[in-house]
Fold this sequence. Notes:
Layout: H1 9-16, E1 22-26, H2 32-45, E2 54-58, H3 61-75, E3 84-87, H4 88-99, E4 122-124, H5 126-139, H6 149-161, H7 166-172, H8 176-194, E5 197-199, H9 200-213, H10 215-224, E6 227-230, H11 238-248, E7 254-258, H12 273-276, H13 278-281, E8 286-290, E9 292-293, H14 298-308, E10 320-321, E11 329-336, H15 337-357, E12 364-368, H16 374-383, E13 389-390, H17 400-413, H18 418-424, H19 434-447, H20 451-460, H21 466-504, H22 507-510, H23 514-524, H24 548-563, H25 582-593, H26 595-602, H27 605-626, H28 631-640, E14 653-657, E15 666-671, H29 688-702, E16 705-717, E17 726-727, H30 732-735, E18 742-744, E19 748-751, H31 752-755, E20 773-776, H32 783-803, H33 814-824, E21 850-853, E22 857-865, E23 872-877, E24 881-886, E25 893-894
Parallel strand pairs: 1-7, 1-8, 2-3, 2-6, 4-5, 6-7, 9-10, 11-16, 11-18, 12-14, 12-15, 13-14, 15-16
Antiparallel strand pairs: 16-17, 19-20, 21-22, 21-25, 22-23, 23-24
The structure holds a DNA duplex.
Amino acid sequence: MSFLDQLNPQQREAVETTEGPVLILAGAGSGKTRVITYRIAYLIEHAGVMPESILAMTFTNKAAAEMAQRVEKLVGGLSIAKPVISTFHSFCVRVLRRDIEALQIPSATPGKPPIGHTKKFVIYDESDMQSVVKSVMKRLGVDDKQLTPRTVLSRISWAKNHMLDPQELYLQSADPKTEKIAHLFEEYRKELRKANALDFDDLLLEATRLLKTVPHVRDYYNRRFQYLLIDEYQDTNRPQYELMRMLAGERHNVCAVGDEDQSIYSWRGADIRNILEFEQDFPEAKIIRLEQNYRSTQNILQAASSVVANNVRRKGKNLWTSRQGGAKLGYYEAPDGENEALFAADHIAKYLREAAQHGETPRAAVLYRTNSQSRLFEEAMRRYGLKYKVVGGFSFYERAEIKDMISYLKVILNPDDSISLLRVINTPTRGIGKSTIDTIERLALETGLSLWGALGEAIRRQLLPQRALSSLKSFQQLILDAQAMLSGTFVEHLEESVEESVARAPSPVQVSEAPQTLQAAADDSSPDDAAAFDPNEFENIAFDFGEPDSSASVSRAVSQTEEGASSPLADQQTGAAPTISTADILKFLIDRTGYIKILEAEDTPEAFSRIENLRELVNAAMDSRDRGESLDQFLDHAALISDADDYDERAQITLMSLHAAKGLEFPLVFLSGLEEGLFPHSRTMLQPDEVEEERRLCYVGMTRAMDQLVLTRAVYRRRHGTDLPEASVPSRFLEEVPIQLIEELGRRRSTASVGTSRVGAGDSHARSRSDDHTSTHYSYEDEDQSASWRARDRASATQSMRQKPTTPAKPYNSIENISEFFASRGKKFTIPKAAPEEPTGKRGFRPGQRVRHPKYGEGTVYQREGEGEEAKITVQFPRFGLKKLVEKYAQLERA
DNA sequence: CCCTGGTCCCAACTT
DNA sequence: GGGACCAGGG
């Protein structure tokens, strides 16, 4: 068979070992995705396995999308049925939407509805979760200075990821703080239950609990899925592990693929033991190692391997590549963060030009430890007129106006969602103020009703002043009207659920009714599955609002992963497209609330961009309708879209966190901020286990590079906005790279406090300038000497870090420094023409000059006070009058 | 009740 | 640079 010929012997074995448990230890760049996709193709084409009985789990939609696409390429057209390729979370949502009511317990009081979540549950994101915690803390009178909501939330999440319930957490707790947290956890859970909401962790937990405790549900999935593949197995947490065990059933046809050196999510509960102890879980397991790297040059691979070799907790492996030699790793030591970014932009600009001459398609990535580092790189890229794409950061769905509309939709789907209700009850303002809300909240607490219930009660019993009542009524009517609009489809949806649960009700008989449940499962998914692969249909879609084509691939992922379960049995029931769609509801809401009108009246660029966003949202909803999705499915996608999903492989320059880079590759990679305290991050430096994880993160970053890897560090870095820049110490990871693999790309500039201690330590020929900085160029040729300056550098910098240097407060002018530097080396360095003026923040605007402000437009400088960092200028804007601006922050341009 | 501006505090990775 | 919170005026 043709495609097996493209595999090396180990890969081939991994593909052909279809029965029984298999653990594939796939080193970085060893063709992991290829093996998984070929394995799926092999199962279908050569092992005669029904596509729909294959389930592959990934961590991101992006990975699922790529996998689905590649499988499709291999076996496309063979069958309408598709393997299910889905993220853990999406899969769990589907399981729960179908059967969560099987977890309900009957109410103690007869006649009352059962307790537990219904199918109309909503998903709470990070900020929703935070709101719940805050309100619970407030209610219980917990001082949020002693115990921040953030801390509480992360401890709750920790407990969940380790499958501890509040009681267990309480029993484990050794201090009053943890006891308090356990108590808050209990209340938090109650709140979510009352709101018919699940948080991210719950999705995994509840799906697992469902499979564990309800035999007929487990049986259904065990019959349905015969072959299980798990990607990034090193990053699975306890609930995911248990889910895997449940799904593996008796057959143990589990194929787990992972690399213990790339485990970087322990803070999210990922348990590296899952991969280290696979053989204990499945004694009959076959272990296959993929050690040939097809991605990187030998130099890069050797450097990365040397770094990760310092870890103790690993199985160890010998990655090798046939790409002998290669360019040395670049190392650049910048005076400060700004310069570091400019250097990267300069280097990348050159690289792009050269690659273009060679007719290659260049792709470069800048990787950093923390997302806040992106700002400097964005500015540098802009200054060079380079197009770039940032992965992560603010997501579309986190914008206020989008969250507002999504919250409306959530309330319409599930009015008991009190968090969303609170968000929209007075948005836009309709005269429902604090005192009114207080009253309703108190009523809810007294009666045990949700806010929505209490709101109805308050109206019925006329518990508020007339004015407040009429505002409340109009809000209530808005929601009711939207629900009524939806009810055409809504009723159908409900009936379907009722039928299903009735059919299933007495569970003992159920086991024999497999065909019916199977049918029901098929009903869950979109009827027009075949159309899901028409690329044209997804042109402007949905859950990614970046570049059009990246949206297309993501939405394709969504459709495949979500609807892939569709079988030829697909239903007739939901076949008719609903007449009222999510998009119609959205339009109705926007119209009725006057949301856009109010923004228009604001008449600011900001407001218009919000309007644009709302239009995007409506577009997304229309696309969702075209895919035959109901409101709950639309909301699920909105909740589960992730930062990593907006990566667009066609972008020439990508900026992203190291975490987001997992699984990707680039010809040129910049690994920035290699400083103690930043990378490794200060919060990890005290625990050896966490430092090992940082080191794995470094390994992940380095192994993204195919041809060229550049490591950078800033000697001085401003940590928090206004603070003085602090001297940094080179990251320990830098020192773990063998020196002969490194080529220094720049010379360091440092202040006297650091520099003088080292004068003469390196070769001093590069000393230059008689300014207050002592600049020294160090050669890496003499290993001993370099090592010694490294050690000394560390010592002296540590010292100056403690003392906070006095001189560095004077800002570096990065451009000048870089050009000086290049000039001193006889290279030409000019600011590219394409770039907008000079670094504005550092140039003084004088009275009388015309300037442009992003928000206020053009104006005239009126007066100037202070100098340097402190400079404030007063500008006369025709429309906004006199404004006093801090020059450093106001993004003023010369007009 | 709503909006604005000032102040304080924060700033790790993410499904 | 920014979000949360609060005081004070419209």
